[in-house]
Amino acid sequence: MRFLSFQSDCSDCLVSFIIIITPLKTPLGLLLNYDRNSIAIQFMEFYNKPQYRCTKIKITFLSVSAARKPSPIRVLTELQQRSPPSLISLAGGSPNPNTFPFQSASIKVKGGEALVMDEPLMKRALQYSGSYGIPELLSWMKDLQKSLHNPPTTGYSPERGQMEMCVTTGSQEGLCKIFEMLVNSGDNVLLDAPTYSGTLAALQPLGCNLINVASDQHGMIPADLRKILERWDPADAQKPGSSVPRVLYTIPNGGNPTGASMTCERKQEVYELARKYDFLIIEDDPYYFLQFQKVSSSDLSLYSQRPWAPTFLSMDVDSRVLRTDSFSKILSSGLRIGFVTGPKPLVERVVLHIQASTMHTSTFTQVTPLTGPVHPVSLLKQQPGFLLFLRVIEFYRSQRNTMLSSADKWLKDVAEWHPPMAGMFLWIKLKGIKDTQQLIMERALEKEVLLVPGGVFHINSSDPCPYVRAAFSLSTPQQIDEAFRRLADLIKDAM
Ligand SMILES: Cc1ncc(COP(=O)(O)O)c(C=O)c1O
Question: Which domain of life is it from (predicted)?
Fold first, then answer.
C-alpha cells in the first residue's frame, strides 16, 4: 500500500489530502480536510470494485467498465470545484482563462430579460469542471428529482445503492455509457421494440441478444415479459454464467417512436418481475415533462396529486433502476444536458467513463441555465419546475391535437393510430401497406412529404413494417394538415 500525502499552506486555509493507492486496487480513497475552520468539507470515496451488489442484485461489471479507475486529475478537479476561492491549487493542468478571447456573454430570454454571464462567471464557464457536473446544477437537479419522484433510495447508504446523479451530454451519453457498463457480448437484454433508434445504435454493436417484449399503446406488456422470463429459473439469476437477462430497457412516457405511455399498474408488474428475476431497469424518460394530462398544481411537493403515473425510480426499493432524464425537450436540445440517476456505485462507474472520455459536459452549457440577471441559478430559479414545463406541455398538447384532427380528416380510411398521451410522435399504421420503407424513401419524397419508416425502430430494421412515425413537434398546423393530405394520396396510390 502506498500513501501519497500532499499539504499546501495558504493564508486562508490548510489543505491536506491523502491518496491511498493499494496494489489490490480497492478501495482508492481520497480524503480532503479543510481544517482552518475544523470542518471536514469533503470526503469522497471512489470504489474500484468489479461488482455492484445491493439487496439481492449482483451486477458484475463488464471487463472494460470493471477496469476503469478514477482519473487522479479528474478527482482533483472535483475537489477543487467544491472548494472555496481561497484554495490555492497548483494541482490542475487547467489553462489560464485570462488568455481566452471570450470575455462576457449576454443571453436574452423570452420575456425580455437578459442573462448576463459576467467576467468571473464567463471564466468559469470556459474552464474545465468536475465530471459529475457543476455542483449548482447537480444539486438543483437532485432536489428536483427528489420532489418529483421521492426515490426510496434517497435515504440508503452508498453501498446499498443510495440515489446518486451525474450530468451527461444529453441523455444519449448516459444511455451509451450505461450500456457499455452493463451489457456484454452474448448477454440477453430485454426491451420493447419498436424503440428509439439511438438505443439500438448503442446496444447492437455490443453483440448482445436483444429480446423483444411485446407492447401496445400502453407500452410494454407485463404478461409478455412474464412469458419470456419463464424460460429461466429465477434461482439461476445469480449463478455465474447464467443467461437470465440482467437488463431491461424501456421508454415509459411518450415512447419514441410509438408515443406509448405505461400505466402505473404495468410499471408495478414490471418492477415485480425485475425483483423476481433480479434484473436492472433502465428507465429512459426524456418525454417525462411532455405528459399531456393536466397538472393542477405547480407545487412540486404535491407528488401524489399529479395525474402522471409514478416512475420506476419512485418505486425503486431495491436500487435496481437507472434513470436517464433530458433537458433536450424543455430547455434546449443543442445545449446537450442530460442526467443519470441511480444507485451510487453504478453512477460512479458511469462517471469513471466520463472521466476517461468527455471529462465533463461542457461547463458553458451547464452554467447557461444557471446564469441570471441578479444572481446565479436564475433561469431555473425564476421558472421553477412546473411553471417552466407547463408552457412546454401546453404547446405540445396543442400540436398533438392538431395532428390528431388532421389525421382524422385525411387518414381515417387508410391508416390507424392511438392518440399519444405524451411526447412528440404519432405512430401510424398504414392500411394495405406491408412495408413503409420504399414508400417513404422513394415515393414520399416525390410527393414532398417526409416521415420516418417504422422499420428503423425495430431490432431487425429490414423486417417489413407497416408503420410510419410522424413528429408533431416542429411543423405548423397548416404544414401538418398538408403533409397528411399528401400522405393520404400516397397511400391511396400505393394500395
Ligand atoms: C427515447 C429517447 N431517449 C434518448 C434520447 C436522446 O436525447 P438527448 O437529446 O437527451 O440525448 C432521445 C432523443 O430523441 C429519445 O427519443
Answer: Eukaryota
Strands, sheet with 163-168, edge to edge from the N-terminal-most edge strand: 163-168, 338-343, 321-326, 280-284, 247-250, 188-191, 209-212
Sorted by sequence, the CB contacts under 8 Å of residue 205 that are 6+ apart come out as none
CB atoms within 10 A of CB 304: 7
- Ligand 1 centroid, distance to 255 Cα (angstroms): 10
**1 has pLDDT over 50:** no
Question: Which residues have a Cβ under 8 Å from the Cβ of 398 and sit 6 or more positions away?
Answer: none
**489 vs 135, 192, 448, 449, CA distance in Å?**
54, 32, 12, 11
Specify whether the CB–CB gap between 146 and 164 falls below 8 A.
no
pLDDT at 221 over 80: yes
pLDDT over 70 for what percent of the chain? 81
DSSP assignment of 405-446: HHHHHHTTTTEE----SBSSEEEEEETT-S-HHHIIIIIIHH
The atom number, within ligand 1, closest to the CA of 255 reads: 1
The average pLDDT across 148-168 equals 95
Find the 460 Cα to ligand 1 centroid distance in Å. 20
Supply 255's cell numbers. 415512447
CATH no. of 130-359: 3.40.640.10
**pLDDT tens digits, residue range 281-294?**
999 999 998 999 87
Q: Where are the domains of the chain?
A: 1-46, 130-359, 395-494
Q: Are 70 and 28 in contact (CB under 8 A)?
A: yes
Question: What was the pLDDT predicted at 383?
Answer: 47
Position 430 scores a pLDDT of: 97
Q: CA-CA distance, 166 to 157, in Å (whole number)?
A: 18
Span 111-138, mean pLDDT?
90
Residue 388 has pLDDT above 70, yes or no: no
Assigned CATH topology for domain 395-494: Aspartate Aminotransferase, domain 1 (3.90.1150)
Mean local confidence (pLDDT), 66-84: 82
What CA–CA distance (Å, rounded) separates 167 from 330? 16
Give the whole-angstrom CA distance, residue 325 versus residue 312.
13
User: What is the model's pLDDT at position 293?
Assistant: 85
Nearest to 300 by CA among 103, 98, 149: 149
User: Quick check: pTM over 0.85?
Assistant: yes
Give the Å distance between the CA of 29 and the centre of ligand 1: 35
pLDDT higher than 50, residue 475: yes
Query: How large is the average pLDDT for residues 9-24?
Result: 30
Q: How confident is the model at residue 400 (pLDDT cuts 50, 70, 90)?
A: very high
For residue 321, the cross-strand partners are 281
Longest dimension (CA), the chain: 82
Pocket test for ligand 1, best of 203, 253, 256 (most atoms within 8 A of CB): 256
Alpha carbons 223 and 30: distance in angstroms, whole number: 47
